UniProtKB/TrEMBL annotation:
SUPFAM superfamilies: TRAP-like. Transmembrane segments: none annotated. It comes from the Bacteria. InterPro entries: AIM24, AIM24_sf, Trp_RNA-bd_attenuator-like_dom. It comes from Streptomyces althioticus subsp. attaecolombicae. This is AIM24 family protein.
Length: 226
């Protein structure tokens, strides 16, 4: 029985966060190294790990969110190994080295609790979306895990004059130092989403990366907020 399943056994721990296959995240938990994770994402754990839904740090930031915006988060504490997943989505692990990343809340799986984070307005898009669009920015020294509906592509904007254009429904994350602006096609009556016929795109320029998934989710990737 064990021999045919040997290839699926957990690998030795080598980092705070790492992939176990393409669709699962493994987190090495230690006392004092707390984690914020999407509610309902825990699929297994070893050791002694406790979970606190909607902790005070999340509630404080959530006051600035409209209904349905942002990811419902739980605080994970303790010692052991924690396994997270999100309906079979691909998992992307990022080690922030004092820099930051701007993430669509629907693609946020987990991040170190000591990182600085909050909901921020996406600059350069207000004239396309009325009151503006909002995203979750995470920065500091630590680990972040994202999800992608399929294997993503990471586009290096390169710092040149050329712009990178992305369908908002396929956008996962980007470097917060990039310049962002909106672009409309001839079907200007549509704003955001797969049903727009690609009528609206986001243009990125500067030095940094953009993470794009091979799926145009029908859910609004960026929330319009009044």
């Amino acid at each position: 029985m064990n021999q045919p399943l040997a290839g699926y056994a957990p690998a030795p721990v080598t980092a705070r966060m790492e992939n176990h296959g393409n669709h699962m995240l493994k987190v090495a938990m230690q006392t004092g190294q707390d984690l914020f994770a999407r509610v309902g994402s825990m699929v297994a754990y070893e050791g002694f790990i406790q979970y606190e839904p909607s902790p005070s740090a999340v509630r404080q930031i959530a006051r600035d969110w409209v209904t349905g915006e942002g990811a419902p988060l739980m605080k994970c504490t303790g010692d052991g190994l924690l396994y997270l997943a999100d309906y079979g989505a691909n998992v992307v692990v990022i080690n922030l080295n004092g820099d930051g990343i701007s993430v669509n809340a629907t693609n946020l799986l987990a991040f170190d609790a000591h990182l600085t984070w909050g909901v921020e307005r996406v600059k350069g898009l207000a004239k396309f979306a009325g009151q503006g669009l909002w995203n979750t920015k995470i920065s500091g020294q630590g680990w972040v895990a994202l999800t992608s509906r399929g294997k993503p592509i990471v586009v290096d904007c390169g710092g040149g004059e050329d712009e990178t254009y992305v369908d908002p429904d396929a956008l996962v994350a980007w470097s917060p130092n990039l310049k962002v602006k909106g672009k409309r096609s001839f079907r200007a009556q549509s704003l955001i989403g797969r049903g727009s016929g690609e009528a609206y795109q986001m243009a990125f320029s500067g030095q940094g990366i953009v993470v794009v998934q091979p799926s145009e989710d029908s859910t609004d990737r960026l929330r319009v907020r009044g």
